[in-house]
Specification:
- The chain is of the alpha+beta class and 336 residues long.
- The chain has two domains: 189 residues, Fructose-1,6-Bisphosphatase, Chain A, domain 1, CATH 3.30.540.10; 130 residues, D-Maltodextrin-Binding Protein, domain 2.
- The protein is 30% helix and 24% strand.
- It contains eight helices and 17 strands.
- The protein has an eight-stranded mixed beta sheet, with helices on both faces.
- α1 runs antiparallel to α2, α2 packs antiparallel against α4 and α5 crosses α8.
- The termini are far apart.
């Protein structure tokens, strides 16, 4: 029987060997600990009356805050602060950067950007949701950490990942050496290696988009969707439309089976809706490490220079052939 490796064992053995990476491995372990607790909270939510809105509150983006958004955010903050392996975080649920000033954390080399509970609007109907995170290196550990320290292009990420809470809880990680996934054993409450060196299929025949916004999209995106719907045996069209409404769930399916996730600019959201620092960047890093592509319509997501911690961006991400195909539509003079 093949040895079952925990996430910690696998990273230490095959991905981040050497003492200089111990802090990064410990940081990934802190995230794993909080994810385990969030998974438990989600499983018991209906019984614990934690489904629903949090007293009508809204986050920094004007979106309704769910009770579990607050719970998840607090669990990750607590785990990251107590772990002492990061100097501060940017969270979707906080308007400003949170700097940890305890003696251990303030000397850490790392910063974390996180969406604690992506897709939380789906919680009431038991649709899979997730956590998305990005890890950056501090420019300097001599001075105090400032907001500007987080404003790094995505290609400087040292690690990124997501946790999908579905029929099983799966922790997907890249440290810049491919993509691996670990599945939570609910009995012993440990994540074990379940998907090694994941490669996204080069070609895909599924696309994920909120079709209800069709007439809000630029003409180029509308034409691409029409192209996906047309019958063509050579390209195996029409493609299948699959849309959950949770970025983690839709991209996880594309990662394993091939596909394209579209969150375009629109009349209502000319700069896109998804956040660059803790949604687009980590997902782009993961997908690129698996052999796929991620663009904002004009350039590579990981080459965008952020100007604010909650900056938004359009994103087209997934199988390389599909991203290249939609890029032709986005750049065509016929549709712009």
């Amino acid at each position: 029987m093949k040895e079952k490796l925990t996430a910690y064992q696998y990273l230490l053995k095959d991905k981040l060997t050497g003492d200089k990476n111990r802090e990064l491995i410990a940081l990934l372990k802190d995230i794993k600990l909080a994810a385990r607790q969030v998974s438990k909270e989600l499983n018991n939510a209906s019984l614990d009356n934690t489904i629903g809105d949090f007293m009508g509150n809204k986050n920094s983006h004007g979106e309704d805050v769910k009770k579990l958004d607050v719970i998840a955010n607090n669990l990750f903050i607590k785990s990251l602060e107590n772990g002492g392996n990061c100097a501060g975080i940017v969270s979707e649920e906080r308007e400003k950067v949170l700097i940890f000033n305890n003696e251990v954390s303030k000397n850490s080399k790392y910063l974390v950007c996180i969406d604690p509970l992506d897709g939380s609007s789906n919680l009431d109907v038991n649709v899979p949701v997730g956590t998305i995170f990005s890890i950056l290196k501090r420019p300097s550990i001599i001075d105090k950490t400032y907001t500007k320290d987080f404003l790094q292009i995505g290609s400087r990420q040292v690690a990124a990942g997501y946790i999908i809470y579905g029929s099983s809880t799966i922790y997907v990680i890249t440290v810049g050496k491919g993509v691996d996934a670990f599945t939570l054993d609910p009995i012993v409450q440990e994540f074990y290696l379940s998907h090694e060196n994941i490669k996204i299929p080069k070609k895909g025949h599924m696309y994920s988009v909120n079709q209800g916004n069709f007439y809000e999209f630029p003409l180029s995106v509308q034409e691409y969707i029409r192209w996906c719907e047309q019958k063509d045996e050579k390209t195996k069209r029409p493609y299948s439309l699959r849309y959950v409404g949770s970025m983690v769930a839709d991209i996880h399916r594309s990662l394993l089976k091939g596909g394209l996730f579209i969150y375009s600019a629109s009349k209502k959201a000319p700069n896109g809706k998804l956040r660059l620092m803790y949604e687009c960047n980590p997902m782009a890093f993961i997908i690129e490490q698996a052999g796929g592509l991620a663009i904002d319509g004009k350039k590579r997501i990981l080459d965008i220079s952020p100007s604010s911690i909650h900056q938004k961006s359009p994103i087209f991400i997934g199988s390389s052939d599909m991203v290249k195909q939609i890029s032709k539509f986005l750049k065509s003079k016929l549709f712009n």
